[in-house]
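Review form for a predicted model. The reviewer records the input and the model, then writes brief findings.
Reviewer: anonymous (R2)
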Amino acid sequence: MSKVLLAMSGGVDSSVAAALLVEQGHSVVGVTMKTFCYSETNSTGKTCCGLDGIMDARRVAETLGIPHYVFDMEEAFTAAVIDDFVSEYAAGRTPNPCVRCNSNTKIPDLLHKGRMLGCDVIATGHYARTHTDGSGTHILRGSDRAKDQTYFLWGVPAEVIPHLHFPVGELTKPEVRAYARRLELATADKPESQEICFVPSGDYAEFLGKRLGDDHAGLQPGAVLSTSGEVVGEHGGYARYTVGQRRGLGGGRGTPLYVLGVRPATNEVVVGTAAELYRDDVVLGDLNWLHDAPRVGDQLAVQVRHRAQAVPARVTDVAYDTVTLKLDRTQRAVTPGQSGALFVGDELIGGGRIR
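Model under review:
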């Protein structure tokens, strides 16, 4: 059996992951990462990384009889996740902080800390699976497709994958809840966190104002333009808008309008009809490959949002820092800054940020 370092967020999924590992006979060390300064937030109750999460993780560890540590990762998390979140919005893009956290902070740092503690395996409560064969270890979609979280894992360094384990990946969410209730774990009926951990209020514009300053260009009023260049309104700061958004554009028009694009250089927001939101191609940058990179002509599938279905696509161009895909079916609101996760069947092969 292995000595396993497990990331415990204080939620039911990582709690059950810990219980399963103990049941399987592994020596388990639970770790909760303190990733941000709680005094800067108005609430911690909804988040996966707040003070209540630390206490819940500790209670579960005590129930299971495993050690539990809290690692202060605030400096690394701020640099890799929060600063990136702010700079992306300032550049007119819509970031995905959970991908950045998994790729740049949580999982790589878990492996580093685990080795310091004598652990040869790291584990998380993600709904994903791994499979090892003659060509290496592969990340696969979780058995519960409604909860599958492989979309958030495309940026994990390839060298980490052989050491990675997802104990709840074969289970459904109801099965996880039932297991936690059977063991009377403190987190059995704990609601899922829905907000960005460092923006528990959900008001990311307020958070940006604190970080950028209310006088930042991205928070200043500017023109709302049609695709023909006609001024059709005024926005309250381009950083408050993302592709596909309808709220905040005002009413009184015969046809609903949606954000099609953001132009930071001119402080403009471009709007159009619902039909204009659809596109049949996507360009990904900031690439990460978990195994061999695809080649021009390869057929695969791309998922452009967490809740979206992966759509079949063909690789039409591969450059040093980008890959271009032609989609078999048009996709709504393909948003710069968001993630494009790439799959061959159930296997996650990598991905990138939508350019």
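Findings: The radius of gyration is 21 Å.
Further findings: DSSP finds six helices and 17 strands in the chain.
Recommendation: see findings above.
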